Amino acid sequence: MPLQEIEIPLGIRTPNTDGIVGEAMVLNMGPQHPSTHGVLRIELHTDGEVVFEAIPHLGYLHRCFEKICEGLPYNQIVPYTDRLDYLASMNMNLGYVLAVEKLMNIEVGERVQRLRVVMAELNRIASHLVALGTFGLDIGATTPFLYCFRDREKILDLFEKACGARLLYNYIWIGGLARDVDENWINECIEFLDYFEPKIKEYNDLLSFNKIFIERTANIGVLPPEVAIAYGCTGPTLRASGVKWDLRKDEPYSGYEKYDFNICVGEGEKGTIGDCWDRYWVRVLEMVESVKIVRQALDNIPQEDISAKIPKNFNKMPVGDVYFRTETPRGEIGFYIMSDGTKTPYRIKVRSPAFCNLSVLPVLARDQLIADLVAIVGSIDIVLGEVDR
Amino acid sequence: MAEMRTALGMPITHQTKTSKNPIIQWILDVWEGFYTVLVGMGVTWRHFFRKPFTVQYPHEKLNIPKQARQRVHVDIDLCGGCLQCDKICPAGIIKIVTAKPVAGEDLGVRPNGKRRALHIAEFTIDHSKCLYCGLCETVCNDDAIYMIPDFQYTTRSLEQLVVNYSRYSPEERDRVVAAAAAEKAAKQASKPAVPQTKVSDPQPNIPSPSVDSDVFNEKCPGPDGEFK
Amino acid sequence: MSQFNPLEAFNLPIVYWQIIWAGIIVAFVTVFALFAVYLERKISAYAQDRMGPMETGGWQGWAQTIADALKLLLKEDIIPELADRRLFKLAPYIVFAGSLGVMAVIPFGVNLIGTDLNIGLYFILALSSTVVIGILMAGWASNNKWALYGAMRSAAQMVSYEIPIGLSLMLPVLLTGSLSMIDITNAQKSGILADGYFWNWYIFRVPPFTLIAFILYFWASLAETNRTPFDIPEAESELVSGYHTEYTGIRFAMFFLAEYANMFIVAAIASVVFLGGPLAPAPWLNWIPGPIWMLLKSLVLVFIQMWLRWTLPRVRVDQLMHICWKIFLPLALVNFIVIATLVVLWQK
Ligand code: SF4
Ligand code: SF4
Could you list the residue range(s) of the whole structural domain that residue C143 is in? Predict the structure, then answer.
């Protein structure tokens, strides 16, 4: 479906049933609502329980990331990228660092590449765990949330041992890594993977295949692939609609081409392709794939100096601009960097996946029940830190 | 794919079971609902008897690895006053004032064997603005500034988080800075010399908006609504 | 012990006895609510690999709910400016009175009952329907859109679920031939098999129909008490807090109290009607007094309610209706017709 044909909601429609013209109730969901995942505000136009229009309002968490970057040297921006998507900071670090490395023409060694993949994939698992847990919470199941956080905690412990921080890592640096990991850490990581794999079945027993959960999510918020592509959705939101598009496979970076893993797409097993259950299930499957990637990356990891390529200063930057995109847990993050040769970038623009995914909400939410709207917002898994930047 | 599905506890067939007959389908649906509820109850039942994952925080603490980045700490005796940490700090929260010793004054040796070349007249860190990025730690050649796993430093006001690590009191600070400035002025009077006192800009990295205050005042209506 | 009759023992006029009993019930409900909230926290904690309250009061944080109740009593009582003040203030009392009144006809022992109405079960059904009026008032008077949604959902839900509840409760009534709670209890003492054993309870009397009726009643009662998976009137991830969004302090505490009292009441009704109430499961256990059996059976059911809550997601509002009208109601009707036929044949 070309973009023009998709009906984009404009203005307020009034419900008109059987000739009776009613008045729409405008309901303000958020920014302090329990299930808007942060400080999203959605303006709902409702007719009873039916939402016939949902308009997201953003900006409550705007922190001028792009402007701050213009005043900072390249290496000092890395801690700020942590704050974009704070549930997947490693992936944010990686995206930015790879963009700068492309600008500076730095090739990092095998160990650095592998460790970066390990960290990014572990963080993908952690981020998907939060997504699953909070999605369950939106549907009303409290317990899976705690189980997900219990396992995420173990990943955070691993991160803390590797780089000292639990949430905002500043671990992946331009040209290398902040700290190296030792043999002990690698063993602990493999131990965690062995512990984690059977746990996925537990989530499935408790939530994924629960009849009530399936009833609540299957056939709800169906996102056809054309609409997903037209709105620029990426990540699990796009893949759940059956589009096989994953930058790790399609435009491999940081050595992803060497690993054997599948792109998980929604197959409409419980309902229609692209419904909430598919978006949820794609995340479950991706966690399994991530475990596979981490295992391969940790296998026979070579020894080398991880800080050999870290540039000493950024006084002589090449002039020009680069765009680099990577696959984060929420989709495709792109960093566009314009350099004027000084040690601070001239301009940085972030193409944020959650922002683009959120833009499809008005289409998905049209003529749904309020309870379904909560499920839809939960299933597209937004992080407001990244939406608002 | 099929193996993975069974490993994840998912039936291989797409729909669990379907039937054309609506009554049989109804029975299957009800049964599936009832059965999956029982499966879920089984999962939580097993957890009733499991050891809790959480710990009772103030009585029992988890092991924090020693490399954890919970707070910046300065070992002021080791610091040589090179200002590297100040320059790298993305938040611009480190304020260092150094002063050259006057002629004939010997500041002694630092614990790491190096000579102390400068007074560290002030070394203030505003902990409330720290990003915990650890960049300051990596640039310090003397290991004087580093991150420690101490996370319990809540205070009642934000001002209390602005900590001066220097051994100099404000009066001493003013004295050494003035002395260094006086000597510099004296030297400059005799011959032009290299600058000797460095006073770091408290926030060197965040560009302040270049607003010309006079221009700003001109356009700004005064308290009585008139342009000044 | 189970033959103990307080009226004869103290030789009191019936009015005094009823006043005393009312006092006992109010005290009991309050204590039970405190205990149930504590239990709920502990159950949720252990289901989720946590510990729950551990600090207040020392051992296992037993005083936590007492401290919370005190906190609620001391809180400022806020009434929204645009609320309908009179309705807003009245609503919690109606909800609370509705649930408390039911306690009058619940037998704690064979003779330990507030008043043995000959229409006991009918009285329970009638009185518990008044709760919905209080909830509607609360939602409307708050002048809050979320609260209004919660109230509307609640009204639809409670009215619908009264039908499967009523139909399931009719089976024991048919088998006994009386609506009195005492009669229903006593009828479970003896049956076809040996007297005084648990197989005479109505849940096992006509397998599988009475068992299905019990399960239906239990599930429908979850909807009646707004518990997960049917807690849509106060679904906190959708409606913030439902009909009591705007309530604070003691008024909120009354809603809370009523909710936990309701949990106990539906469990108590189920145990009287299906599980023999104060009867011991075997004659050699008769030395344990009836009230203890009654409490034990109700607490087990309350535990299952909580267990379900911490396991299941929440259904959607239309699915709730679907479950009621297309699953519970047909099953309850079939059950009812079969048992009614059996009873008629038996009597012939
Ligand atoms: S940790 Fe980062 S933000 Fe904090 S003082 Fe060091 S360099 Fe500055
Ligand atoms: S980098 Fe180290 S030695 Fe230099 S000023 Fe900072 S703390 Fe002192």
Answer: 6-347
User: In which element (H, E) is residue A294 found?
Assistant: helix A276-298
* Pairwise CA distance, residues B165 & B124, whole Å: 6
Cβ–Cβ of A178/B138 closer than 8 Å?
Answer: yes
Is B201 touching A (CB cutoff 8 A)? no
- For residue B215, is pLDDT > 50? no
* Domain assignment present for C171: yes
CA of B133 to the centre of ligand 1 (A): 6
Flag the least confident range among A89-93, B85-89, C235-239, C311-315.
Answer: C235-239
d(CA C29, CA C36): 10
Contact A161 B65 (CB under 8 A): yes
* DSSP sequence for chain B: -HHHHHHTT--SSSSS---SSHHHHHHHHHHHHHHHHHHHHHHHHHHHTSPPSS--TTTS-PPPPTT--SEEEE-TTT-----HHHHH-TT--EEEEEEPPPTT----B-TTSPBP-SEEEEEEEEGGG-----HHHHH-TTS-EEEES------SSGGGGEEE--SS-HHHHHHHHHHHHHHHHHHHHHS-------B--SS-SSPPP---HHHHHHHSB-TTS-B-
Residues of chain C with pLDDT under 50: 1-3
Domains of chain B and CATH, by start: 2-48 (no CATH), 71-187 (3.30.70.3270)
The answer to whether A257 contacts chain C (CB < 8 Å) is: no
pLDDT tier at A34 (50, 70, 90 boundaries)? Answer: confident
Asked if residue C157 is part of any domain, the answer here is yes
Closest-CA residue of A relative to B138 is A178
Among A139, A146, A369, select the one facing C314 at the smallest CB separation: A139
In whole angstroms, how far apart are CA C7 and each of C4, C11, C15? Answer: 9, 6, 10
Give the pLDDT score at B197: 52
pTM for the full model?
Answer: 0.83
Q: Which of C263, C272, C262, C265 is nearest to C173 (CA)?
A: C272
* SS3 category, A72: coil
Q: What is the pLDDT of residue B9?
A: 56
**Closest C-alpha among B146, B152, B124, B149 to residue B134:** B146
Partner residue facing A34 (CB), from C49, C236, C316: C236
Residues in chain C with CB shorter than 8 Å from the CB of B54 are 49-51
Of C145, C237, C319, the CB nearest to A35: C237
Ranges A138-152, B97-111, B203-217: which has the least confidence: B203-217
% of chain A exceeding 70 in pLDDT? 94
Give the total number of structural domains in chain C: 1
Can you tell me the distance from the alpha carbon of A66 to that of A335, in angstroms, rounded to the nearest whole number?
10
B46 vs chain A: nearest CA distance in angstroms?
11
Query: Is residue C43 in some structural domain?
Result: yes
Res. B227: pLDDT tops 60:
no
For residue range B151-177, list pLDDT tens digits in order.
888 888 888 888 888 877 878 888 878
User: Beta strand pairing status for A347-351 and A331-339?
Assistant: antiparallel
The pLDDT of residue C10? 63
* CB contact (8 A) between residue A170 and residue B14: no
ipTM value, please give it.
0.81
Residue C1 lies in a domain: no
A292-342 residue pLDDT tens: 888 888 888 888 888 878 888 777 888 888 899 898 988 889 999 988 888
